[in-house]
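User: quick one, fold this
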Amino acid sequence: MPLLSVHKITPLEEGCPYATWPRPNIKWCEENLCSYITTPANTWSNLSYVIFGIWMIYDASRRQAKKGKTGSRTLKTIGVASIMVGVTSGIYHATYTAHGQFLDFVGMYMFAVIPVILNLRRLRFLTRKTENIAGFLVILLLSVFTALVQLEIIFPNGGFPIQNLVAIMIFITVIQEIVLWYRSVITNRGHFIRSLVFIGAGFACSISDATGLWCDPKNHFVQGHAVWHVLGGISLQFLYLFYAQFDLESDPMLPLVKNV
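Assistant:
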C-alpha cells in the first residue's frame, strides 16, 4: 500500500507533540494537526473496532449463559482482539509515529491470526491445546519481522510494504475456507461472505485515500481511510458471527451449534 500512496511523508512542525519521533512508512490524506491527536478523523473512526469488540464480548457472554456452558473464551478473545485493533490503530493515527505504527501492525496481527488458527483447527492441523502457542508464535514472528523492517535491518530504504502481511493473512483465510468448502464441511458462510464484502469496500476506500482519488486534507471528520476503519469494524463483527456458529470450546473441532 505505501507504494500506491501519493502523499509525501512530512515532518510535524517543530515544537508539536511527537515532532522529534520517527515517522511511519505511509502518509494518508488527512492533514496532520499540531495536536496530541494529529489526525482526528483517522483516529476517532477506530472507535468502530472498539464498539463492535465490546458487543462481541457481550454477545459471547449471552450465548454462554443461554447454553449453560462454562466457557466462551475463544469468542470473547475475538472481541478483545477487535478492541486491540481499535486501540493500537487509534494510537498510531493520533501520534503519526513509527512507534505507533508498529503497535498498529501488532494489533492487526492479533486479530488476523485468529481466523487462520481457527481454520487450522477445523482442518485438524491444530488442537485446542496447541492453538494458543501457535497463535502466539505467529504474532511474535510477524512482530519481530515488522520491527526489523522498520529499523531497516532487513529490506532497507522501505523495500518491503509491511501492510502486505495483513493482506497475505486475509488471503490465507480465504484459501482455507475454499479448502474447507471443497471438503464438503457443512457450514453457513453467509456471514463470512458479508465480512469479505465489507473489508473489500473498506480497502477500496483506503486505496482511494492513499492514491488521492478521495482526498480533502483539511476534512477532519470524514476521510477514505477513516471509512476503512468503520467498515473494517463491521467486517470483524460479521467474522465473529461466522465463527459463533461453531462450538469453539470443543476438541476436536468443530461441530455446528444448532439454532445460533
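User: anything notable?
Assistant: The two ends are 38 Å apart (CA to CA).
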